[in-house]
Amino acid sequence: MKIALVGYGKLSKIVEQVAKERGHEIGLIINSQNLHEFTQENISKCEVVIELSTPENAFDNILRCIDFKIPVVSGTTGWYTHLHDAEKYCVEQNACMLTATNFSPGVNIFFKINEQLAGYINKLKDYHISIDEIHHIHKKDHPSGTASTLAAGIFANHKDYHTIKASLENESMEINSGELSILSRRDGEVPGTHQVNYDSAIDSIQITHTAHNRNGFALGAVLAAEYIYNKQGVYYMSDVLGL
Fold it and tell me: CATH number for the domain including 39?
């Protein structure tokens, strides 16, 4: 399969390596220096796009891929206020897209465990839920997309929570009824650590996912590209992993 990369930061370079190891070819790389090459003629030489750009550019990049009728996998976060519009447009154009706040297979299993645990805790009522997340200092959005997805899983399974209350480390904040605290820390080159805390007066339950490097994200992105090849519609990592 011939893959186009849109965005060429640290993660995209690992994606490039993993894709080649799995027998694929990188047919086009688009970055801030050659945006003029992001054309239908050039993209049509590839079979799928993996989009890993910036929150400011992701939505437009995805729409362009939809217009070009090439399946697009996007792992950029921080643009999700436009997600529904992108998905609706994709369906209208009979195109194909897959988005993920985190491509790591382990993280997506973590998402499912968190959803189940929130549902169990919902029956007990005595637990306070919060999320802590740590990422590298280059990450632009906070809370992370992964933390936001964890929050969505809690909202869907615990009726007492429905709003995110986000803060950075060392910020003081007051938590009101219905708010889920997400505390974000940015530290060095940490790939990503997420911890969901279920605390009561008698005990605490904590579930944690710690990424040791970016290889899991890269592998998941390539698996997603393989999955949507020659497909139409809107997909997620739960489809890729059979979750």
Answer: 3.40.50.720
From the candidates 69, 128, 136, 139, which is the catalytic residue? Answer: 139
Tell me if residue 212 is catalytic. no
Judge if 93 and 114 occupy the same domain. no
Cα four-point dihedral sign 72, 156, 190, 32: positive
> In which order are the strands placed within the sheet that holds 72-74?
25-30, 2-6, 48-51, 72-74, 96-99, 233-235
Q: Is 82 a catalytic residue?
A: no
What per-residue confidence (pLDDT) applies to 174? Answer: 85
**pTM given for the model:** 0.83
Q: Are residues 9 and 38 in the same domain?
A: yes
Question: How much of the chain is helix, strand and coil, in % rounded to 5?
Answer: 40, 25, 35
User: Nearest-CA neighbor of 51 among 85, 4, 119?
Assistant: 4
Catalytic residue among 135, 142, 194, 209: 135
**Can you tell me the distance from the alpha carbon of 224 to that of 240, in angstroms, rounded to the nearest whole number?**
6
The two three-digit tokens of residue 197, written as one number: 């805390």
Give 155-192 pLDDT, tens digit per residue: 999 999 999 999 988 777 788 989 999 999 999 988 89
**Owning domain of residue 200:** 105-210
Q: Which CA distances in Å does 104 have to 23, 52, 110, 223?
A: 20, 14, 10, 10
| One domain, residues 16 and 75 | yes
Which structure tokens are listed for 232?
């139409």
- Whole-angstrom distance, CA of residue 24 vs CA of residue 48: 11
